[in-house]
Amino acid sequence: MTTITEVPMLPPPGETRIIQTREAINEALLQEMRRDETVIIMGEEIAGGAGREHLGIVDAWGGAFRTTRGLIQEFGNERVLDTPLSEAAFVGTAIGAASTGMRAVAELMFVDFIGVCMDQLLNNAAKMRYMFGGQVKVPFVMLTRIGAGFGSAAQHSESFYSLFSHIPGLKGVCPSDAYTAKGLLISAIRDDDPVIFFEHKGLYGDTGPVPEDMYAIPLGKARTVRPGADITLVGISRMTWVATEAAEELAKEGINAEVIDLLSVSPIDYDHVLESVRKTHRIVVVDEDTPVCSISSDICARVAEEAFDYLDAPPSRVTPPHTPVPYSRPLENLYVPNAERVISTVRKLMA
Amino acid sequence: MALEDRDTLLRLYRTMTTIRHFEERGVPETGQRGMSSSVHSSVGQEAVPTGVCAHLTDDDYIGSTHRGHGHCIAKGVDPTLMMAELFGRIDGPNKGKGGSMHIADMSKGMLGTNGIVAGSVPLAVGAGLTSKIRKLGRVAVAFFGDGGANQGVLHECMNLASVWKLPVIFCCENNGYAESTPVEYALSTANVADRAASYDMPGIHVDGMDVLAVYEAAGEAVFRARTGGGPSLLEARTYRYYGHTVFDNPLTYRTKEEEDYWRARDPLLTFRNHMAAQGSVITAAELDQIDAEARQLIDDAVAFADASPLPQPHEIYEDVYVDYPIEMMRRGANMTV
Questions:
Q1: A62 and A162 together in one domain
Q2: Is the dihedral of CA A189, A195, A201, A203 positive or negative?
Q3: How close does chain A come to B154, measured CA to CA in Å?
Q4: Best mutation site among A42, A78, A93 for testing chain B: the one with the most B CBs within 10 Å?
Q5: CB contact under 8 A, A129 and B322
Q6: Are residues A208 and A230 in the same domain?
Q7: What CATH number is associated with residue A254?
Q8: What pairs with residue A215 in β-bridges?
Q9: Residue from the list B96, B130, B152 with its beta carbon closest to the beta carbon of A97
Q10: DSSP letters of B34-101?
Q11: Which residue, A118, A149, A167, A163, is CA-closest to A292?
């Protein structure tokens, strides 16, 4: 297995190996655990059926979304740890293990569950290195899930990555497809800082080209997935594809939109966005997180501060409303940004 | 303990008196330098960290509390550098960026004092997990108080450590008060140690004013952890002589009679009484000499700390991450450095 060192932000042209995002995540975990025996993973149901080995039960679930399937067979129950339903304990324990020589991955089943363990991220993972004057590294990854649109209601659907971007000491990534999921997860595990890895539930089944060899996509870098000259659309996670869908429609009207896939939510690649805006003079951020004190508001503030003279229209956003995620289908459909809302927003800015 | 084990006995006393002198001098000195709100004195509680950490090596781990100077000293952190940390100086183990509530020394297995009640408990459990997975033979002690005894994360951690049979000692320093709230009001059980039954681990209650009793009980718990027997819950009943911080008058929530009762059981005095009563070969003069040396050590520490430079402005951006563009920390903030 070779490691690709020069990593393109887009899959190599001609890559014919097509797998699902969920499989790409699984492959990144498998390859990193093979490469480095200090990598461990823990969480609820990540193997499933723990303690029933005597009945021949191993890997009953392989994760609530099957992203950890097969790990326990290869690495055993010392490195692949099913946990009690105790997020504060196991997230904190993973941070403690990471600060004493392991590379620890913990899975928080849904980001909405962060309330019961936020202290471990906020006051331990994020601050230890600073408070300790640089004495400790915390190579900790928290895998968690985001995304509405599945009838899961308000406690299983949020996309609250901005909560974590706000905290100095944490990094965050939002892969948008199978290729970026594998490459960013490999980088996250190899990184010596705490990284939150946000998996969108709506992307797991999507397929795309993924090299079998290991490759590490750098943290903190955005990519342009569709070049254009008239307006910049910034997407995060699944919203990249909503923005792209809107761009394809707008092209029919003669509006040539550039689509940026942000990928990292801390650090945010402002320069990539600013370079595009200085060319297009307009920007819309398409974000599935709520609009107040968010990534989308932050990018608009940055553009206003650093590219004010280039703007031909106000920096704008398409986001959910400042509400919890509703359950009923028509309401949830209203909640999640779609191409239609992006198109109408762009039309107003181009007028 | 066998009375002929002179070296251990002298070491226990030296640790206790060093903590005592550090607190009695360092806490007010820090206050005089304008940072009193973050400093908590552990005077009265010296026997607990001393008796527990005497069983640990530099390779073992501890997680500590907001009242953690004693844990640091007992685990081998240099009191001179600790004083520099309290004064916010660059020579502190944390380069002056942590202060009293975050003193850490990874070279001594000291995972930090912690400003969050029961905040370091999962870190110690994680260190125990590292030791178990990598077969290092190390143990981890999670110190917390009677206030921390009621934190959810502690209970989750005790369950997890028991399920995974981790080499962890949960050590409760029950000093009777969570800030001003008495333990008998806030605790549903008679003792914190009673709760060990819920997690299928031994629960031991010991006199936390008697370093020899703590030493003996902790020895069993450390041995159990080190030999694969899993976690224990050790509760040491102790007392803090001063308020929660230097700002509060403890007589607003407790009585002079109660304070006198506990001061009469002072851990240093108790140790001296043991030595005298048991006809030890350790003399009062020897202990007086150790006290004098501790006093001198702390006097020198204060002088060293005052002479240590303050951090340069650029330090504000250092060590937030291992790798992160500093420009991203400054951007939009209109900083002057």
A1: yes
A2: negative
A3: 8
A4: A93
A5: yes
A6: no
A7: 3.40.50.920
A8: A4
A9: B130
A10: T-GGG----TT-THHHHHHHTT--TTSEEE--SS-HHHHHHTT--HHHHHHHHTT-TTSTTTTSS-GG
A11: A163
- The pLDDT of A316-338, averaged and rounded, is 97
A157 located within any domain: yes
Best of B321, B328, B329 to mutate (most A CBs within 10 Å, chain A): B321
Same domain, A245 and A301: yes
- A302 to chain B, minimum CA–CA distance in Å? 7
Domain end: A197, A215, A233, which one? A215
Residues of chain A in contact with residue B127, where contact means CB-CB under 8 angstroms, are 96-97, 99-100
Sort out which chain B residues have CB atoms less than 8 A from A78's CB and list them: 132-133
A215: number of Cβ within 10 Å: 23
Do A208 and A238 sit in the same domain of this protein? no
Kindly identify which residue of chain A lies nearest to residue B163, measuring between CA atoms: A84
Alpha-carbon distance of A298 to B188, in angstroms, equals 47
Q: Which residues of chain A lie closer than 8 angstroms to B322, CB-CB? A: 129, 137, 191-193
Residue A131, min C-alpha distance to chain B (Å): 4
| B-chain residue closest to A94, CA distance | B126
Q: Which residue has the tokens 């293990």?
A: A97
Taking the C-alpha atoms of residue B82 and residue B93, their distance in angstroms, rounded to an integer, is 7
Q: Quick one: pLDDT at residue B281? A: 81
CB-CB neighbors (< 8 A) of A134 in chain B: 95, 318-319
Which has more pLDDT, A169 or B248?
A: A169
Which structural domain range is residue A153 located in? 17-215
Can you give the pLDDT at residue A1? Answer: 39
CB nearest B95 (choices: A97, A128, A133)? A133
Does the distance separating the beta carbons of B96 and A131 come in below 8 Å?
Answer: no
Listed residue (B32, B37, B73, B39) closest to B56, CA to CA: B73
Q: Are residues A24 and A141 in the same domain?
A: yes
Is residue A253 included in any domain, yes or no?
Answer: yes
- Of the candidates A87, A158, A258, A332, the residue annotated as catalytic is A87
Model pLDDT for residues A266-281, shown as the tens digit of each residue: 999 999 999 999 999 9
pLDDT one-digit tens code per residue, A237-251:
999 999 999 999 999
pLDDT bin (cut points 50, 70, 90) of residue A4 is very low
Is A156 one of the annotated active-site residues of the chain?
yes
Neighbours of A115 (CB within 10 A): 10
What total number of domains does chain A contain?
Answer: 2
pLDDT at A89 over 70: yes
DSSP class of B313:
G
Which two three-digit tokens encode residue A109? 């089943």
- Select from B98, B126, B131 the Cβ nearest to the Cβ of A131: B98
A209 shares its domain with A264 = no
By the 10 Å C-beta count (0-12 exposed, 13-18 middle, 19+ buried), B216 is classed as middle
Contact B329 A168 (CB under 8 A): yes
CB pairs under 8 A between A and B: 162
Say whether both A248 and A206 belong to one domain.
no
Q: Is residue A1 situated within a structural domain?
A: no
Of the three residues A215, A243, A271, the one that is the final residue of a domain is A215
- pLDDT at site A3: 45
Cβ-based contacts of A124 with chain B (< 8 Å): 114, 116, 119-120, 122-123
Instruction: Judge if A189 and A250 occupy the same domain.
Output: no
Question: With contact defined as beta carbons under 8 Å apart, do A244 and A191 qualify?
Answer: no
- pLDDT digits 0-9 by tens, A175-189: 999 999 999 999 999
Report the candidate in B64, B42, B43 with the shortest Cα–Cα distance to residue B114: B64
Structural domains of chain B sorted by starting position, each given as residue range(s) with its CATH number in brackets: 6-330 (3.40.50.970)
